[in-house]
């Protein structure tokens, strides 16, 4: 896995300077533009194309707060492919109620109840976002042990957000059916 922070010469942070990310992106876009290597060997052209691709991916990830959280969790070994993360029972019970309400709305559409459910999800999502923001703000100033605890907490919130994303998709379907 390529370390995009290292590629851009930046420290690993949840809150990098957007202007600096953009500056690095443009700088490397010029440096690794394939047109400048047209007379080079095929190997060199392939290498430059790979670096150009890495630069594009790095910019996409580092400039998007949600992708950046996912990436940092991955980079720090918190997210593992195929992992079956178990969300807390209290959260799952709350989501079960939401899912039941959504099922009821499929059989008995009600724009008012759907709007109330959407507002409830917005509120839960805002709470999770606020918690993530508080944790990520303090991350860089902590020792390794504290950083690990923060990453574990962020991972839990990340998975809750993923779950909410699926519910939000179901709400969109319910809205389009109404």
TrEMBL record:
Pfam family, one: DnaJ
Domain called J: residue spans: 3-75
CDD domains tied to this protein: DnaJ
Keyword Ion transport: no
SMART domains in UniProt: DnaJ (SM00271)
UniProt-listed InterPro entries: DnaJ_domain, HscB, HscB_C_sf, HscB_oligo_C, J_dom_sf
Superkingdom in the source lineage: Bacteria
Record keywords: Chaperone
Role according to the record: Co-chaperone involved in the maturation of iron-sulfur cluster-containing proteins. Seems to help targeting proteins to be folded toward HscA.
Entry's family note: Belongs to the HscB family.
PANTHER family: IRON-SULFUR CLUSTER CO-CHAPERONE PROTEIN HSCB
The protein's name: Fe-S protein assembly co-chaperone HscB
UniProt organism field: Pedobacter gandavensis
This protein's encoding gene: hscB
